[in-house]
Amino acid sequence: MSTRGTTSVLLSVQPTRGLVDEKLRVVVANLPPACPVTLHCLHHSEDQNCWEAFGHYLSDNSGAVDVSEDESFGGTYTGKEGMGLLWSMRPVPGSRRGLRLRKMRVDTPMTVLISVFRGHLTEGFREGPPVASVVAERWYMAPGVKRVDVQQRGVIGTFFIPPGPGPFPGVLDMWGGGGGLVEYRAALLASHGFAAMTLQFLDNRIGNRLSDLRMGYFETAFQIIQEHPQVISDSVGILGLSFGTSVTLSVATCSEVARPSCCVCISGSHTYPISTPVFELLKEKSSDATKVWLDEENNLVWRNMILPITTDPAMKVDVGRIKCPLLLVNGDDDQNWATVESAEDIANMMSVAGNRHLLTTLTYPGAGHLIEPPFTPHTRASNYIVMHSQEKVVMLWGGEPKAHAAAQEDSWRRILTFLKENLYIQPPTLAPEAKL
């Protein structure tokens, strides 16, 4: 879609309705040659906060700016960054501290207002009218994806089923120590042809309280996916982020019931398997100033919490027992968890056990802990409730915006490829009218 401003400037944004991992092309035309303009992106989040990004451009000899091809000379990003208007979004000046942009309702789009302003602006975007604007919708759920609440056999979650008759390969999607039910990644996986169920755990309202994590809960969740009539029962994988990695590895190595076809672990560790009193042990370490501290901006740093990596076999998942392909995704500026050191120890343990050939490790320079789907704005630190103490803090996650954005884009592509190769996925069949 495109729109003309009062000065005949033409702004084109394609597509105006697409998935969140789909690239946008933003083009401005009908400008004078060498005209300075600012491209601005504004998003009003579900928690009533405003996020923005902007780049400074000069039109070419034909009076055009193509964000995918031209360099930004300033703003929230610089250089040739076709998706910089999305991944560099940050809270507008004056916002409260510790915000993180996350989509709560996946049945509605994330809408962004993309505008072009004359001159190179750094503020005052609401004070004067733009010369042209376009609204674009970014979706986690593709048309035809079904969202199904799961509350059965003691398990709480949400199932996302791709369009078409199936059956589909399945994915059990697990997040980290923040708890709650987080749906957007599972919805996006379903949009790419996986029957994905996101699982709620670490919640006092269900049976597996902090002090009572049990393998049976995760085994039952895995079985619910396997038994679904639209799922290929012997083609189910597990994806976990942060503490979800500990759960993923524990299930893959210790369960006699849940036998995943492959596992993806993002920003996690094999230390503290769920067979140990995880949160009691972490609570003990949290009082050690050499393990946990506040940085100069009063952000809580857990980087050293699990260092040095223990040599006690009882305190680590025995990854030598893994029998399926395993993908580890980490950032080398993770300030929340010692993921790189954990990955090295996992590789050593698997080498000794003779299953190192099953392991693929991706380590991204300059990336932090919160490696999310592509073009998600980077969050270096954000509000967090420590699960074992219920203390409200601002947690340091790490990462630098540009490097972290590159890591998110590349890792998502490789995660999807890994899942497709190991779960034997067929391309989803969409009805002709089922287009974003």
TrEMBL record:
<protein>
    <submittedName>
        <fullName>Uncharacterized protein</fullName>
    </submittedName>
</protein>
<dbReference type="InterPro" id="IPR042490">
    <property type="entry name" value="Thio_Ohase/BAAT_N"/>
</dbReference>
<feature type="active site" description="Charge relay system">
    <location>
        <position position="334"/>
    </location>
</feature>
<dbReference type="GO" id="GO:0006631">
    <property type="term" value="P:fatty acid metabolic process"/>
</dbReference>
<dbReference type="InterPro" id="IPR006862">
    <property type="entry name" value="Thio_Ohase/aa_AcTrfase"/>
</dbReference>
<feature type="active site" description="Charge relay system">
    <location>
        <position position="369"/>
    </location>
</feature>
<dbReference type="InterPro" id="IPR029058">
    <property type="entry name" value="AB_hydrolase_fold"/>
</dbReference>
<dbReference type="Pfam" id="PF08840">
    <property type="entry name" value="BAAT_C"/>
</dbReference>
<comment type="similarity">
    <text>Belongs to the C/M/P thioester hydrolase family.</text>
</comment>
<dbReference type="GO" id="GO:0047617">
    <property type="term" value="F:fatty acyl-CoA hydrolase activity"/>
</dbReference>
<dbReference type="Pfam" id="PF04775">
    <property type="entry name" value="Bile_Hydr_Trans"/>
</dbReference>
<dbReference type="InterPro" id="IPR016662">
    <property type="entry name" value="Acyl-CoA_thioEstase_long-chain"/>
</dbReference>
<dbReference type="InterPro" id="IPR014940">
    <property type="entry name" value="BAAT_C"/>
</dbReference>
<feature type="domain" description="Acyl-CoA thioester hydrolase/bile acid-CoA amino acid N-acetyltransferase">
    <location>
        <begin position="21"/>
        <end position="152"/>
    </location>
</feature>
<dbReference type="GO" id="GO:0006637">
    <property type="term" value="P:acyl-CoA metabolic process"/>
</dbReference>
<feature type="active site" description="Charge relay system">
    <location>
        <position position="242"/>
    </location>
</feature>
<feature type="domain" description="BAAT/Acyl-CoA thioester hydrolase C-terminal">
    <location>
        <begin position="214"/>
        <end position="424"/>
    </location>
</feature>
